[in-house]
Every structure is written in C-alpha cells, then in structure tokens.
Amino acid sequence: MSTADDRPTRLHRSRKDFSESACKSRGNQVIQRTARSRAAPELFGPAEQLQSSGFIPAAAVEPVPEPSWRAGMGAIPYDGGTTFRVWAPHAQRVQVVGDFSHWHAVELAREPSGNFSRDVPGAGNGQQYQFIIQGRYGDWRWRNDPRAADVTHSTGNSVILDHRDFIWRYDHHFQMPPRDELVIYELHVGTFHDSPGWGPGHWLSTIDKLDYLKDLGVNMVELMPSAEFAGDFSWGYNPTFPFAPESAYGTPNDLKRFVDEAHRRGIGVIMDVVYNHLGPSDLPHWDFDGETFGRGGVYFYTDWRASTPWGDTRPDYGRHEVRDYLRDNALMWLRDYHMDGLRVDATKEIRTASGVDNPSGWELLRSICEAVKREFPWKLLIAEDMAADPALTHPAGAGFDAQWDAAFVHPVRAALIAPFDEWRDLNAVRDALAFRYNGQATQRVVFTESHDEVANGRSRLPTEVSPYNPGDLLAKKKALLGAVLTLTAPGIPMLFMGQEFLEDGHFDDGDPLDWSKAGWFSGVLQAHRDLIHLRRNWHDTTAGLRGEHVHVFHLNHQDKVLAYHRWRNGGPGDDVVVVVNLGHRGFTDYGLGLPSDGPWRVRFNGDWRGYSPDFGDTRVQDVWGSWGGQDGMPARGALSLGAYSAVILSKDR
After folding, report:
1. Any residues with CB less than 8 A from the CB of 395 and at least 6 apart, and which?
2. Three-state DSSP class for 487?
3. 342-to-242, 400, 647 alpha-carbon distances in Å
4. CA distance 38 to 399
5. How confident is the model at residue 52, as a pLDDT?
6. Degrees (nearest 5) of the Cα angle 242, 83, 162?
7. Are 143 and 130 in contact (CB under 8 A)?
8. Can you tell me the distance from the alpha carbon of 13 to that of 384, in angstroms, rounded to the nearest whole number?
9. DSSP alpha helix (H) spans, 281-401
10. Would you state the pLDDT for residue 558?
11. For residue 63, what pLDDT band results from cuts at 50, 70 and 90?
12. Strand pairing partners for 129?
C-alpha cells in the first residue's frame, strides 16, 4: 500500500488524445461518446422546479413514480432506456438529471431497502448524469453516483456505460495458467510506457508493449489500481469512483481492449483494488444522503475506526450495504472487464482498525473470496497483508489464494543490499526460501521489487546497492542474484516493471520508465528472460522449479555460498540444483552435494559475459556427479563459480 502523497490538490491536466484511428487499428469498434463537460448545466434552485417529465412518452408519465423491477445498482442500461438505483437511506427524495432529460430532474421512487430507483426511457450509453438528493433536514445536494461505471473525471459527471457495446475478440486465446507456472509482472499504467511531460501513459500505449512482455515470458500482469482517482497522476491508491476506470488512462473500452489484447498473447490481467479506505478527496460518497453522523455519512465508520494511515475514510464494513458495494466492485472487474484476478490492497487495514481486530473486516474479505470462488473458481485472489498471517490464505480464514510474502522480500533484500559480505545472513536467506503458508508454497507471492519496496524512502535494488552508479558491475550482479532467488524460489514469482533492465532510482507516478535502459542493459534483460523460461520449464529440463519442494543443503557461511535442491517429483528433467554465491570470491572446483550421480547440465551461468561485458565470464562446465555423500546428499560434484553470481544445474530427461 502506498504511503505516498495522494496529491488531491494537484491541478487536473489535459487528457491525452485517444484518436479513433488508433482504436480502429487495434481491431475494435470505437464507441461514439458525447462531449464530456466539466460539470452539469447550472440548474440551481428548488428541485421541484427542475423536474420535468416531458421527454418521457406520455404512456410512461405517472403522478407517483414507480420503482424499477429490474435488478442491479447504479445505472443499468436496458434496451430503450436505463434503470437508475441508488442507496440513500436517510434521503427524503432523490432525483436524477442528465443528458437524457436535458438536465431536468426526474423523480426516483423510494424502495423499502433504502434504495431509490426508476426506469428512465431514452437514457443510454455515453450520456452524463448526476443525482439531486434532498437530505433528512430538507437541504438539497448534487451528487455523483458512487457506482458510476464511467466518469468524465473525478470532479465531473457520471456517465452511463453499457458493457454490452464492447466486442471481445480474443478471450478464447487465453487459458488461466496453473498456479505453479505463474510469473507476475506488476506495472503502473501511467508510467509504464510514456514520455515525460503532458499527461500520463494510458491503456493504448500499454498495449504497444504487450509483445515485449510476451517475449519476456511473463504470463500475468498486475495493474496498480486503475479506478478513477483525484487528478491525473497518482499511484492509484486514492480511489474516488471504484467502479469507473481512470479517465486519464482512456475510456472503459480502452481498458477492455487492453485486457483483450493481453489475452490474445496468452497474458492474464490482475487488477489491484483498494477497499481499506476511499479517497480521501473528490468522494461522491461523503455526506451522500444528508446524514453525516458527525463524519462522512453512511458509507464510512463514524467513530475511531474511520481512521486509516491515508485519511478518515475507512468504509463501514459493519453495514451489509457497504460490504455489498465493495463485493460487487470486485465482481465487476472480473465479470465486465474479464480480469483474471484481483490483488486486494492492505488487507491488514481491513481486518483490523488502529491495530484492533475488526470482525466486520474479516467478513468483508470472506464474502469477496466466497463470491469470486462461486462464480470464478479459476481466477486468482491475492492479499497484500505483509504480516505473514496464514489465516489470509486458509479456507477457514479469509480464503485468498495467495498473499504477498514479507518473509521473502525483506531478508532477501537485506542480504543483497548489505555492503559487506560478513553482514549477509545466509540463515535468513535459507528461511526465506523455505517459508510457506499452510504448507503450500503457491500461497505466497515472492519478489525483491514492488511499488512499495522501491519508494517511501527506499529505492530500486541497483540504486540501493550502488547509489552513485546504479549501472555498475556490483549493481548488475546483485540485481541478477535477486532475480535468481525470486525465480527459483517456491511460490509465485513477481517482477516490478523495469526491474528486468536495471531501472534505477525510486518509483514515482510522474516519472516514466526509461526504456533506453532495455538497450543499454540488454544482457541483463536477456538474463531475466532466460530465468523466466527456466522457471516455466519451457525446455522441459527444469520442471522442479515449478514444484513445491526445496531443500537448502549447502550453507558456507564463511564464503557466503548456498545451494538448494528444487523438485516436484524428482528425477531427470525435474531435479534442479541452484548454487548462489553471495560473496566477492570466485571459485574453481567448488565441491558440493548433488541429488544423484551422472551428468548435470549448466542451464544458467550468472557470470556469463553475454549478460554484461564486464562480467568475469567464469567458465562453468557441466558437472559429473558421483556417488559418495556430501552435504547430506547422496552424490557429489564440483564446479566453477563466479563472484556474486549463480549457477543453475539440471539433468536431461
């Protein structure tokens, strides 16, 4: 979870031009949209004077409006019109105004549930609207729809969106990979593929790099939060309209096109969602129906539980309507945008409040996981809790599939960043490799870089290693060691955008990736590509890297060398031995144990000069294993090993 400034006061900048020709060139229809004004026409005064039903056919005019019999919340298009339904339990009256009524008010009918609804003929896709609400004490207010599926921007109008308008072309190209084959790539749309100046990157610019990601070998991208937020530049952890994709990134159909094109290339998409707080600025939820309870009103806690590290806007999970709101949002990304999973941000701030256990927060997490598993049992649910609590991924707990693993990233980064070899704790690295939740390695996501780990006072691994020259030999070596440990450890490995070509500094939502580094450090990029291919067993020689099992059998604390055995079922093509040298000395004829005798082929040599011209190019030859125990293993062998480098061995089938 970001602790960066959400920047609610940043001036709204111009959106990038999403030309129709660019959309059409990608093989999808362009939906004609009405021009997006900054605000509704200035219709003020008593709401009764704004109401006009003249645009509705005479047969539909009624002295007392009837609630809709159609299901759903928000603005739900149907053939010939749109159903509007909004939760406003303390309101006296609710009206809707928009393009469809020439911004004259249309009365909604109260339902016993505290909802107000009505079918409005003629209201349709792309039209803007707002609600006018008379509160408990008679005052009137204009409010956007908290469930708006599209908005002009965070302080503009809600927009009706008909999800039926988009034609999905490539969904059949994608099949969810097995958990043990997943390689996740976390990216921020605004900075992933953009140039400095003007607006942020967007869905269409990100599509242009999907072939690059396919070639890299990743099969799942995890998008940092992309629901509408205040301003155009943000990490995304300040959502104002959770149901609306960020307008600065393009239209909702642009997002669908991105998902469709990713599926075309065999890449799944995970959306990062934020339910631990809302906003805190530009919120339509705040004082929505005229009853604030001294704070923000019906959507939020109104006592000490409202407080979060990012503002006093924690949703009131004790209200079933609020839990339904958040659960429906999770399902929307999976249903309407065909996402393949969700990453739920800072779940510790949901299941606790100010450090105190919050049973209603646990109930929310369980309800989301249960609803998703009923409808989409194959999709991936990831919790970011960072407290190593196995209950998050236990069926009797919250029920997530996996969680980000603090037990891996922190000790591994500490070992890599330590300036002196004697400071490196091999026992901590061993424990990080072996850690798991509820006895299952795939219940954790392992990484050395993420948006949180490379910001908030911390930097990318190369910068942490060599602050004044993050492209030097030591930075490259340590970065590759981090990649080796991540991509050979049990669990689901994840990279953060640009990590594969040695991006340096710290993550900032206004600083795009420097893609020139992909050329400058093309060898480092190739090393990451080779490691991902080994991880996914593309050559049918490293199946053990997809297995659950790991045994760290060799720890040389003096020279800082460790070796571990990875396997699924064992045997040729399955057993993998990873040897990691975290020290400054290179070795020839370095002896260690092996799982079996016979020839062990070198699959990866981290000191190969092809990865960088200044590497030592230690000649690592295939190892012949012979019976005779060493390190508690049945066989033994010897190999050469470069300084600050790793070697991966396996046997042919």
Report:
1. none
2. helix
3. 13, 10, 35
4. 42
5. 38
6. 60
7. yes
8. 31
9. 320-335, 348-351, 359-375
10. 97
11. low
12. 98, 158
Which run of H or E residues covers position 23?
helix 20-24
163 close to 123: Cβ distance less than 8 angstroms: no
Instruction: Say what percent of the chain tops pLDDT 90.
Output: 89
d(CA 259, CA 268): 8
Residues in Cβ contact with 374 at an 8 Å cutoff, skipping those fewer than 6 apart: none
d(CA 245, CA 337): 10
The superfamily in CATH containing domain 179-224+238-275+317-514 is Glycosidases (3.20.20.80)
Q: Mean pLDDT check: name the lowest of 150-164, 188-202, 439-453, 534-548.
A: 188-202
CATH architecture entry for 37-165: Sandwich (2.60)
For 220-355, where are the alpha helices, taking DSSP H only?
252-264, 320-335, 348-351
pLDDT at 308: 97
Residue range(s) of every CATH 2.60.40.10 domain in the chain: 37-165
Residue 51 — pLDDT band, cuts 50, 70, 90?
A: very low
Specify the CATH number of the domain 543-650.
Answer: 2.60.40.1180
Report the candidate in 311, 363, 296, 306 with the shortest Cα–Cα distance to residue 146.
296
* Beta strands 402-404; 444-446: pairing state: parallel
Task: Look up residue 242 and give its two tokens.
Answer: 């959770």
**In this predicted model, what pLDDT tens digit does every residue of 398-434 receive, in sequence order?**
999 999 999 999 999 999 999 999 999 999 999 999 9
Q: 532: helix, coil or strand?
A: helix
Mean pLDDT for all residues in the chain: 91
Q: Taking Cα atoms as reference points, which of 111, 86, 117, 84 lies closest to residue 100?
A: 84
d(CA 155, CA 229): 10
Strands 444-446 and 492-496: parallel
For residue 88, pLDDT beyond 80: yes
Closest CA to 23 of 163, 160, 153, 203: 203
Q: Are 240 and 229 in contact (CB under 8 A)?
A: yes
The CA-based angle 131-316-324, given to 5 degrees, is 65
Average pLDDT over residues 499-509: 97
Q: How far is it, in rounded angstroms, from Cα 516 to Cα 195?
A: 12
| Tokens standing for residue 358 | 């919050």
Q: Is 394 helix (H, G, I), strand (E, B) or coil?
A: coil
Q: Which two tokens stand for residue 71?
A: 């299901």
How many angstroms separate the most distant Cα atoms in the chain?
A: 94
Tokens of 315: 């949703």
Phi first, then psi, for residue 308 (nearest 5°) are -130, 170
For residue 26, pLDDT over 80 is answered with no
pLDDT tens per residue across span 151-175:
999 999 999 999 999 999 999 889 9
Of 495 and 45, more confident: 495
Residues 6+ apart with CB under 8 A from 287: 141, 296, 297
Give the contacts of 62 (CB within 8 A, at least 6 positions apart).
none
Q: In 3D, which of 163, 102, 93, 161 has the Cα closest to residue 131?
A: 93
For the chain, give every residue range classified as CATH 2.60.40.1180.
543-650
Q: Is the pLDDT of residue 1 over 60?
A: no
